[in-house]
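User: Teach me something about this protein's shape.
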Amino acid sequence: MGIPTTTRDRPAFGARMARVVLVGVELFVAIGAVYGGVGLLAGNAIGMTPDWLEGTPFTTWTLPGIFLLLVVAMPMTLAAVLELRRSPLAYPAAVLAGAGLVGWIVAQWLIMQKYFFLQPTMLAAGVAVLLLAWYAHGAGFGG
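Assistant: First, the predicted structure itself:
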């Protein structure tokens, strides 16, 4: 199928493009979360400063690394795989993954009360996953 030539074809084309971008964002976030999670578990190989743990319930980066893998990496990976397989579970998986990422960033701000330049980027990625899933799966203008 090519580029849409009529107005009637545009919504379906838009939904397909939204799915492509959705998978791209999900995989980008998943890869970053795996890198971060494994880096935290590997003796904080990514170099997060220990002062970020002050005032939190954590004394090492081990649990945050595990949580990053469980709350962000796994759901984003699963959502991307389900989208690629065109599973009926792709939409709810994307919504859960996007909401999980937004929640992860909000939790970081509330618990750690620190700012890192990637936080707004990842917050935007979480919102993008939510909006792209909504659009791609018929709730938006596409079908």
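Now, about its shape. The chain has one domain: 10-136. The first helix runs from residue 10 to 41. If you'd like, I can walk through any region in more detail.
User: That's plenty for now, thanks!
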